[in-house]
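User: Quick sanity check before I run a bigger batch. Here is a single chain. Can you write out its predicted 3D structure?
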Amino acid sequence: MSIQAKWFKSDPEFDKVLIDNFKADIESVPSGALDSWKEDHYGRLALILLCDQFSRNCYRGSPDAFKFDEHSLAISQSTVASPELFSKYKHHEKIFITMPLMHSENVANQDLLMSTWEAMLADLTQRGLDQ
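Assistant: Done. Predicted structure follows.
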């Protein structure tokens, strides 16, 4: 199974790996136990992955799958809003940084997502990497 298929498809075995290895970390986010990660380049990305992606695997089929969305959304918004921070991420990392915007039902977040992705595409096109 490809990485993309594993990541974006329902796979009980993959879910179990994430539950066994990361559920306790996800559960510690609301207490602020991982707040120091927000000050680190890859810490921000890790928090977004925990709260926006891994939570969906760990709580698949439950409303709890979305209970950490506000945490990932806040980090995503602040990262995208800072060109100094956002520009330092690789393209594939930027996709995950912006995923909470995609998952948001707020129109302003959807608009921010589209303008961010349009800028990313323009950058890739300018560098000849859009193929």
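The mean pLDDT is 93.

User: Great, the batch can go ahead then.
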